[in-house]
Amino acid sequence: MKPNLKQVLLALGVLTLTAQAIVPAFADDDYNRGRRWQEDNDRAREQRREIARREEWRRRHYREGYEQPRYVYAPPPVYYAPPPRPPVIDFVFPLHFQ
């Protein structure tokens, strides 16, 4: 029995529809999720390392505890005249109570 063209096209159609129905099931194989998780993990690890580097730098450059203050030259203070007062009109009402 030799398949005719109609049966071959029908079989190809059924195969195509079946393949299209199965392909979305394999679309998410968790590869991207695993890669994103790894990237997030690497990013978090790098942030923790950066925080540790900053803390180490701060510990080396800013000692904790009391240190003798370092006295340095300070320029003389500059004195400015007070700003002029705005012109106003003052009303004074003498009130005498007895």
Describe this structure in words.
The model has no long low-confidence stretch (mean pLDDT 80). Helix content is 50%, strand content 0%. The chain is built from two helices and no strands. By secondary structure, the chain is an all-alpha fold. It has a domain at 7-60.
Count of discrete alpha- or pi-helical segments spanning 4 or more residues: 2
Low-confidence stretches: none
Number of strands: 0
Radius of gyration from the CA trace? 42 Å
Spatial shape: elongated
Give, in order, the helices and strands: HH
End-to-end span in angstroms?
137 Å
The fraction of residues assigned to DSSP E strands is: under 5%
The overall pLDDT, averaged over residues, is 80
- Indicate the structural class: mainly alpha
Measured as a percent range, the helix fraction is: 40-55%
Largest sheet descriptor: none
Key words describing this protein structure:
mainly alpha; 0% strand
